[in-house]
UniProtKB/TrEMBL annotation:
Gene3D superfamilies the record matches: Fumarase/aspartase (C-terminal domain), Fumarase/aspartase (Central domain), Fumarase/aspartase (N-terminal domain)
Location of the Fumarate lyase N-terminal domain: 15-305
This protein's GO CC annotations: cytosol
PROSITE patterns cross-referenced by the UniProt entry: FUMARATE_LYASES
GO molecular function list: argininosuccinate lyase activity
Organism: Euphydryas editha (Edith's checkerspot)
Argininosuccinate lyase C-terminal domain boundaries: 368-437
Family in the record: Belongs to the lyase 1 family. Argininosuccinate lyase subfamily.
The name this protein goes by in its record: Argininosuccinate lyase
GO terms for biological process, alphabetical: L-arginine biosynthetic process via ornithine
InterPro entries: Arg_succ_lyase_C, Argininosuccinate_lyase, Fumarase/histidase_N, Fumarate_lyase_CS, Fumarate_lyase_fam, Fumarate_lyase_N, L-Aspartase-like
């Protein structure tokens, strides 16, 4: 028989199709720990403020512990709960009745599933934020390690995916480290807003029995209490924030994935992804496909969609609780699981891929030093705009002669402009190493600038 928390004034059962649409147990059973934790704290608060007897409180506390163990067992044996009830709140109360008898009927005093469910979700988010954060920290560490070890590698930097300037590979890697570092900080900024306890808000109006909401919130590990009962049961802004955060973090992962996919194509070919993170083709024996990264790129689309779809659900809702809100957990869990898998795949993929420094270096071409050549003219007093055009003329002349800037004869340079100067000096420009070493200002691609980025992030990492 189905234990229902409501229905006293109903004459008929809900239709089976409404039940199917309404039942949330397969999803919210994931919150059984939080539900029980919240109920234990609630009973304790009812007891502390004189609304529950010692005996009943004890029966409830011990009963809830038993329910928790029982559910844990069921989940580990069967992988899901086979209870008939509509949601986890009803399951816990029915099971509690079996252990605590009549005392169980007092647990829901002055409480609503509206404040209960909002509290459960926030409790879950507080612990899950920690896990997500740990995973990003791992990713940052893995990228940082490579950046440290591969500081000597110089490869082409691209803008518009056209060869731009020589770049230290580590500088490129660090550009993602900074994005992920910001993701960690953004997540932390959400935690304060998240950490306010809705319990004691009832269905809409608050709690009619005098209780100490602050003591209750503290006992659950919250920093604060929600300041308005209607806000408490109706707002899902913390979930919107999280979903949009996950979507942005997914976007960072996706761009990294896209780069690494391109760099492992045969046309670039300086990265090889490990067997662990690649798959083959059923037809073409030579294929090694970067599926892990492609799945990350696809997942970023799902994350954006989830963030958007949840905002769509909220935007037309009248204030406080409406059943539309029930899907908050489905979307939250889905996005969270997806993001965590993506982070783990990214960690594994980046940690195990091989970077071929020689191949990376061979992708460089003399044309990528055109900017350096212009800067050399600037050092000799030529205004930059003029220098830009003069180097342009050298490029045009080199194309006519079917050579590159490095092999353009010296007299051709002098014919364009005498400031190109002595041949020996001019030839010195054509070095990848001295090219990147010019960029010594903060945030540049010189060795020291990159090393100081690495140091800064390492120091920041010590807080975690
Ligand atoms: N399962 C619901 C949810 O998670 C719990 C709140 C239901 N409240 C209600 N009055 N029907 O949103």
């Amino acid at each position: 028989d189905r234990y229902q928390l409501w229905g006293g004034c109903f004459e008929e059962e809900p239709s089976s199709v409404l039940r199917r649409l309404n039942d949330s147990l397969p999803i919210d059973s994931r919150l059984y720990r939080e539900d029980i934790q919240g109920s234990k704290a609630w009973a304790e608060e009812l007891y502390q403020s004189g609304h529950l007897s010692t005996i009943d409180n004890e029966a409830i506390q011990q009963g809830l512990d038993k329910v928790e163990r029982q559910i844990e067992e069921d989940l580990s044996n069967k992988g899901r709960l086979n209870d008939f009830e509509e949601d986890i709140h009803s399951v816990v109360e029915r099971r509690l009745r079996e252990h605590a008898g009549e005392a169980a009927l007092r647990l829901h005093t002055a409480r609503s599933r509206n404040d209960q469910s909002a509290t459960n979700t926030k409790l879950w988010m507080l612990t899950s934020f920690q896990r997500a954060q740990n995973e990003i920290i791992r990713l940052i560490s893995v990228i940082l390690n490579r950046a440290e070890q591969e500081i000597d590698i110089i490869f082409p930097g691209y803008t518009h995916l056209q060869r731009a300037q020589p770049i230290r590979w580590s500088h490129y890697l660090m550009s993602y480290v900074w994005s992920f570092r910001d993701d960690v900080i953004r997540l932390e900024e959400q935690r304060n807003r998240l950490s306010s306890c809705p319990l004691g808000s009832g269905a809409i109006a608050g709690c009619a029995l005098p209780i100490d909401r602050r003591r209750l919130a503290k006992s659950l590990g919250f920093q604060n209490v929600t300041p308005n009962s209607m806000f408490a049961v109706g707002s899902r802004d913390h979930i919107v924030e999280f979903l949009n955060w996950a979507s942005l973090c997914g976007t960072h992962l996706s761009r990294l994935a896209e780069d690494l996919i391109i760099y492992s194509s045969q046309e670039f070919g300086f990265i090889q992804h490990s067997d662990q993170y690649s798959t083959g083709s059923s037809l073409m024996p030579q294929k090694r496909n970067p599926d892990g990264l492609e799945l990350i790129r696809g997942a970023a689309g799902h994350l954006q969609g989830d963030a958007f779809s949840f905002s769509c659900i909220l935007k037309g809702l009248p204030s406080t609780y409406n059943k539309d809100l029930q899907s908050d957990k489905e979307i939250l869990f889905r996005s969270y699981d997806r993001l965590l898998d993506c982070l783990k795949v990214a960690v594994g993929n980046v940690a195990t891929m091989k970077v071929d420094a020689d191949k990376a270096g061979k992708l460089l071409s003399a044309g990528m030093l055109a900017t350096d050549l212009a800067h050399e003219l600037v050092r000799r007093g030529v205004p930059f705009r003029r220098a830009h055009h003069l180097v342009g003329a050298a490029l045009r002349r080199a194309a006519e002669l079917h050579c590159d800037l490095q092999h353009l004869p010296h007299h051709e340079y002098l014919a364009i402009c005498p400031e190109f100067g002595a041949e020996e000096e001019l030839r010195k420009i054509f070095s990848w190493e001295s090219s990147v070493e010019q960029y010594t200002s903060e945030g540049g691609t010189s060795r020291n600038s990159v090393l100081s980025q690495i140091r800064e992030v390492k120091q920041w990492l010590q807080n975690y």
